[in-house]
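anyone else get weird line breaks when pasting these?? whatever heres mine. first is seq + tokens for prot A
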Amino acid sequence: MVKMRIKNNTVVKSAIKVKTSFKDMLEAVDAVNESLKTAKSMREFTESSVAALRYLSTRLALTKRQCILLSVFLDNCFDRDISLGRVADLMHVSVTGMLRLWPDLDKLEERGYIVCSRGGYNGTSYRMPMDILGAFKYDRVYVEPGMGNEKLSLDQLFEQIATLFGRRSDDDLPYAMFLTKIETLLKNNSHLDFVSRLFALHLERESRILLLYFCHLLVTENEVEVGNYDIGKIFEVGKLANIKRQLSLGQHELQREGLIDFSCDYGAVDRTLHCLTDKATKGLLSDVELPSNEYKAGLTSHSEIAAKELFYNEEDERQISDLAGLLSEENYQSIRQRLQEKGMRQGFACLFYGGPGTGKTETVLQLAKQTGRDIMQVDISQVRSKWVGDSEKNVKGVFDQYRKAVGKNKKAPILFFNEADAILNMRQEGAQRAVEKMENSIQNIILEELEKLDGIFIATTNLANNLDPAFERRFLYKVNFHKPTTEARTKIWKSMLPDVAEDRLSALAAEFDFSGGQIENIARHYAIDNILYGANSLDRLRQFCLNERISNYGTRRIGFVV
């Protein structure tokens, strides 16, 4: 339309075309931006955009100035670093004039229309989340998830919590605004049991925020430890020093309530790291599926074990053959029944001890294969946890899992603790250090479990001389794996290198006092060398033996080692 203006008692026609109706918010935003670009003065801009601003203000519940700012940001939404200077230029105001608009910028940030990056390379700048474009595309008023009437699921709640903590950590959200958003998010979703339990603790606001941060890291990041550095990214400087001091002294409200505790490195307390307690996780996160720190021992089917011929000294072979006969299902059940009738323990605990490479581990696997028993192999390094009490829980849990496996399988599986030196050694008398107490506690649990074992337990160790006497009594069968004799070594060489002349292999067996594991290592080296460089000479084979022998005396070899 053409608007009439009066100037010096003269009627003047203005060429400004003012649109008075809009089909959606995008059309109104476009009208505002077009007026900003073409108007020669602020009065002309106001006259040409008054209807569009009135429409946007009514739809969005924002002031007209806030609608102008929002229109400018929408027109530059693909710029991820919009400076205040650029906004000032687009609005035809000075940078100092932008200071008057600061409360309006805060309002847009509070509503989630813009995100402010503070203290970056270019100073304070803004960007618009892509979700805003989607809302305007479908002519919807944007509301941040959890900030309106929409009820979130527990997963959606933690997604939004993660977003807010992430923005706060990146310094994209002022502390006061962050607190407001968190509190609004929680209150708007009080229908969730997690939120109800959190408020039922009646914690101070900062304590509630800190506890929520711990829960967020555990649920969404699988982080069980929270350090002072992480906490420093959330709280403002004025409150941070006091929070850190209270935490280091163990006097924080969350510590007094038994909700968080110091983390430990194999029993040694670290006052800079903290974690949720069982009370907190069970009380707050009982309906959340959490990643478990509990060690899970897998059950390997006997059918998956590759058959392998093993060679022993005469006495070792006799003992292993006797044990294999005992573990055959017919003999095993018969002996269990007779022991039960006599009121004796029915479990079979066996210890295989001897030097490295003498075949202890492979023998366990072949016994499982031969007797048709599945095997539950336990990785001792994973059972031992850095968390106070978790190592003990893990060991207890392994035996609980084994009992369930015995009940579900037709044949009792073999519970196998490989390289168990660390947990079968001498207990510490008068243990004072936390790690020593933990080790003793683990050993006591194993001793107790072996006492009531109803199944088959086999442990291997290289250090039998350091075996605790209490363990020695618990093992019904103890098999000493010796280094193979010359005759046994010859058989091992033949099985590994069938294409090499027997007299040559016999000479190697006589010259080098290797274990079966060392012979296998040399044979693999010889085979790989043959694949890479063609047919090997016997001199090369002997050189590999010399290299292996050198390694026995601690000389470090240089080159290709398998």
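and prot B, same format (seq, then tokens)
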Amino acid sequence: MNSTGSRNLWRRFTGAPRMSVCLCVLAVAGILGSAPTEAADDPIPRPPQLERDVQFWIRVYSQIDTNAGFLHDQSNLAVVYETLHFAPDSPPSERQRQVEQARERYAAALRRIASSGGDEALSADDQRIRDLWGSEATPARLRAAVDDIRFQLGQSDRFRSGLIRAGAWQTHIAETLANLGLPAELAVLPHVESSFNPSAYSKVGAAGLWQFMRSTGRRYMRIDGAVDDRLDPFRSTEAAAQLLAYNYRVLGTWPLALTAYNHGTAGVRRAKETLGTDDIVRIVRSYNSRTFGFASRNFYVSFLAALDIDRNPEKYFGPLQKESEAHFQEIEVPAYVSLSSLQHALKAEPTELRALNPALLPAVWSGAQRVPKGYHLRLPADGSHLNSQLLAQRLTPGEMFTGQRVPPRYRVQRGDTLAALAERYGVSIDSLAELNHLRTSAHLSAGRVLTVPETTAITLASANSASSVASLTPPPSTVPVAPAAALAKPVSPALVVPPGTAKPPEPTTAPAVASATSSSALPRSAAAGSAAREPAAVAAAAAALAPPAPGGAVSPEVAVRESAEDAAAMEELVVASTRPRAGSALQPLSAAQAEAVGPALGPAADTEQSADPIDYSVAQDGTIHVAAEETLGHYADWLGVTSARLRELNHLKFRSPVLIGQRVKLDFSRVTPEVFETLRHEYHRELQAAYFAAHRIVGTEIRIARSGDSVWTLSQHRPQLPLWLLQQYNPDLDLTTLRAGTQIVMPRVEEVGSGG
């Protein structure tokens, strides 16, 4: 392993200063194939009970391309009824007709075989179908199989392309995993997620090589109006390693940690607790949940299939010439600087810069946003040895700024379309969509705020009312900085508190035990408790507590108002709420449809990717476990009842706090448990989104509790560490009663700029 690359990577994770790097081409086949010794002898087990599933996905990935597919049983993957082949230029409608005809034919055959009872002679084809089921071919099982016929498109052409692309990042991925002590086998995960396509976007908003959702990605990366590190294969690799290490820490095994990458940490933790086991075979075979569908059950076995092919690609695809690794150097940008100024100072070609810096968003390339201070700009490895100080000397004081530009914004009115706005602005639909990270076919919701081209902003302002334009004035942060010599002392960015969020007051006394609300919690008023909550949660609560529908039933639909300051985050919520139920996910019929659904080679995820391990659901007996940052007042607001009613129900004295982990009984006389769960999820989603708009996790450390330690003293040890994040990293630890000698995982965080 390259010692310079390893040293620089270690600095990146430990927070030490990072030097410019030039990655060298290494042969990593041996690295990727070796197993770590510290975690277990076999950290990535391949249980024989799952072998039939692994073999199914090996066939999907290596035997048939996107002009063919398997008609199979979705529960027993050993049962493949037929391989369907399509003409390369056949339209989706023709492919759909072919699939449906085959599905009806096999459904009729299953009914016919089940009705025969084994007494009648079967045709040769019916006998073949019955033999596929072996000892499972009981009449009841065959009848049930009628509804389990599924189509799976082949992926061999996409997998082969991924094997070639993977060469560009294999060394960095191997180094990242090795420096964190993670199994080398995890390096093949991008095969399943994106086919090693760093610019891949999914239908639900996941992006990049490792397919991070925006909310999860912001835990570990910079994602704002200027930079989206999800699109950077190097930064996103480091973030994925942290997420996988976190999942393993919470769940205890790599099969579960990998499944959680797809299904969410809380969902896999719930499965583990429900069945009382961490056996991946029992979980994928026996766990029943509305959201634990085909994708979740097959994510680990599809990973094992990808691992098998990646270890011996020539066996499946013959000789391959992988892409060579890029050579570059990195230089830290000393201030907020426009890209044009950087290009001039560095004498760099725009095409080279764009290829080496995929995380810089269109707003930066168009000049609407500056390259942020501290961003590690990649440059060609031309033998020069530039650094931040030399760059600052090449820039004039008027080219360096202390803050980001805030581009003009337009608030969408009812009836607006992307095409109509593009015409009014005098720009193409493609450019307006790209500027706002939208598809050209995206539907615009009234109230959403769009970034507009600055050159036409003044014209638009004169043609529209003040209510339509969110902001056309430059922010105070566009003041040039002092000369280069004054740049040595960094300025720590302030915590960004989104509008509608009350800044938490400083606590006056240190609590003796861990109550559910810490000093970082959002405060609530004594009367209603909703004044300090974020706008979306307030709107959701208002919708949930509206007068009952005719007949006395409360509508389960919750109207969530879009936050103008973070439209992209709200888009994730809308997409997640409209995701198909488990078992009803789209089954693409062509390469184009597969790309439209998402870059994943396997089926689309059943649930939204989430690193939050806390279970916010309501138990069957109407109780919940109290989570950090929650009070009885929150529950009363979401339920539409009084706090006094909840105290009476739980035999709590006046002013007695609820504690983290405490079981509390709730009153669902006014809202359903589903509405309550939605409001609770949204509260925590917005709480975490506000925090990760200004902070990111850069690593962890272990702290040993001392005599007299409490969750309060721990939070003071890390002033920027909210209680809910401490709970997420220690979900099975009782934070109310810390004993001396207890190990506590402390996430290390750093502040990041909001990027305007």
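btw re prot B: The first strand starts at residue 68 and ends at 73. The first helix runs from residue 3 to 14.
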